[in-house]
Amino acid sequence: MNYYYRSHFTTHIIGAKQSIRRRRWMLVLAVFLVLMLPTGFLLLYERSTPVGEPRGIDVSASVTEAFHEEKDAVKENASVPEPPRFTENPAARDPWELRLGSHLEEKTHIVSSGDTLVNILLDAGLSGREAYRVIDALQAVFEPRKLRQGQELTLTFGGGGEGPGSVFHGFRLKLGPDREVQLVNCPNLGLMARNFNLELETRPATATAEIRSSLYQAAVDADMPIEVLMQVIRAYSFDIDFQRDIRPGDAIEVMYEEKYDENDQVIKTGSVLHASLHTRGNGLPIYRYEASDGEVDFYDADGKSVRKTLMVTPIDGARISSGYGMRRHPIRGYNRMHRGLDFAAPTGTPIMAAGSGVVEYAGRKGSYGHYIRIRHANEYHTVYAHMSRYAGGVRRGARVEQGDIIGYVGATGEATGPHLHYEVLHRGKHVNPATVRTPPGRTLEGEEHERFKVVKAGLQELYASLEDWTTLAGVSKTAQEAPEDEDREPG
Prior knowledge:
This protein is of the alpha+beta class. The chain folds into three domains: 101-197, Roll (Nuclear Transport Factor 2, Chain: A); 199-307 and 447-478, Nuclear Transport Factor 2, Chain: A (Roll), CATH 3.10.450; 319-431, Glucose Permease (Domain IIA). The chain has eight helices and 22 strands. Strands 11, 14, 15, 16, 17, 18, 19, 20, 21 and 22 form a ten-stranded antiparallel beta sheet that branches. The protein has a five-stranded antiparallel beta sheet with strand order 1-2-3-4-5, with helices on one face. The protein has a five-stranded antiparallel beta sheet with strand order 6-7-8-9-10, with helices on both faces. α4 crosses α5 (128-138). The protein is elongated, with a radius of gyration of 45 Å.
């Protein structure tokens, strides 16, 4: 009985405690709802109230509609200001542009003997600190000690500071007709320097030279640039011996490129586009053509490359002083076979590789003096002797390309004067370099040949139009001068 009483009492106490906890949680929940209900109604009221309509006031539907109509009318008639536009500073867009407007001032200085870049900058008004900062930034692209007499330096200044022209903007140092060094003082990036290639306009030009005494003199008389003449000689040197094959009365026609600057002045000449050599009644036209693989060469009218395995003359501007065959040796005094050609030229004249190949020997070789032997394709070899010195990088096993400078004319070994002794061997036997005819380097075929024919026709048409224009210009000039002759009193 006692046990029952204690168990029942304990159960009653536990149940009472649980009931109290439930009442407390219900009270807390009720208080929370009481506090949150006004906030919820306020949020709903805020969302449901239209923008611009006074809150907490009973507005009729007609008044609300009139209010919105008036607001829309104001929106339509009002001029809404455009957002401010950002005006870009040209200097910020292109910091390399040094010609920014009339507010800038340019000072041009022609470098004289003894001038240094630091002194020029100091004389122009830069402080010592600014001048040395410029030198430090410039050294990444140009060595200031390489400043040369006659070079043109243009400094650019702008307004600001204590007086006009006190803010340094940069400079341009002209190194050549189409190249200059630029330095710009950019507010955001600081001093920056670069090498810059100037854009030149390319135009075609023509020249015709009639040979009376020599090809060189004919080119000078026709105002043909010497650079153009050298290109023509190299192109024809595979088939033409300019010492023996050229006669008085022969002529050469050339179309080439000229490069013009912004002042419409000819700065330099470019590539030869077309040439035609008329010798002994025969015309030998050649055309410059860039193949689809990027290789550029001269081709004859049939699409055969004028470039052969070997050049006839591996030296420019030299005369043949001794031919191939039996002769009396100038030093030993007896007759013996001369197995090459001798080209007389001043000491130091560059000697070219007659063809592409590998150097088999480069060193002294008895009576030959300084000697080079090159192995070419199709079992050809060439020999160069009596040189004064070798070109850099020419040694046994070195690869050379046709036209590369391999050495310089001299008189080493058994020689009576400076000259080049040149030999050609085919399959181990000597052949006459003046008469050897090696295969062409390339013959265009198929689609490449069709493409070449289109380019050739275009060059022929361009040359004809230039010749017609020159003729018309000459006729026009004569017609303008004729009336002056008629009005002139007899003297």
